[in-house]
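Case study 2.
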Amino acid sequence: MQEEMTALQKFIDTAVEFIANYSFQVVGAIIVLIIGSLIANWVAKLLLAVFEKKKLDITLSKFLTGIVKILILAFAILIALGKFGITIAPFIALVGALAFGASFAIQGPLSNYGAGLSIIMSRPFVVGDTVTVAGVSGVVQEVKLACTILTNEDGVKITIPNKHIVGEILQNSKDNKIVEAVIGISYESNPDEAIRAVSETLNRFSDVAKTPPAQIGIQEFADSSVNISYRYWVPTVKFFQTSYAVNLAVYKALQSSGINIPFPQRDVHIVSQPSGVGS
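Prediction:
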């Protein structure tokens, strides 16, 4: 019991001595960190507002404001360490050594950061664009250093590591996405009337882009039908919704115009053999 009391007393004495010697430094360091954090947030918001006023790309704006914020916070931390008389030279050397050793273990994340920096600086796409890459497609919601975030019409969030974007084949259709559809008409029907009916149907939809205009024409002469192909652009977030509605409207328009939509047909010829053959 006496040993426990002695240990407790020693701890209390050490705590009191630390408070007496470093209380002002601790308070000063905390104040410096709080002020640094407030200044960093204020400067970041100010820069973001200036960039938005200058209509700078939102991805590049967030990247630059983030860098400025980190630099201000790092400067505040250095000042706070100085309150304790700590020199930063050994820490810089230690961080450099750790970074060199860790670089071999985190090559994947580092390659993502490098690719993210390349995307932010070269800007092959920006927030709001529709991109298709690495087998997926969606609207760009955010570009980070490590990854790019897309969303599709179903509200699914798609996260792509940036190293799978840089150096790959990338399709960027901006705000819209193309719809390609085919409908067959009989050989007895007038293809000009069918094309006109499809064109009038597409013009009735406000979500179908007028620029570039829709493309409609004969795609091929199939076995049972003349296939009419139509291509048009719609907002990516309404891709399936619009394409389904257009297909139904095209079907009804062709029926109203008296244009026949055939089903697959086959001519079967029965060849009879003379009696006695093969017996």
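Strands lie at 130-133, 136-143, 147-151, 157-161, 171-172, 176-185, 215-221, 226-235.
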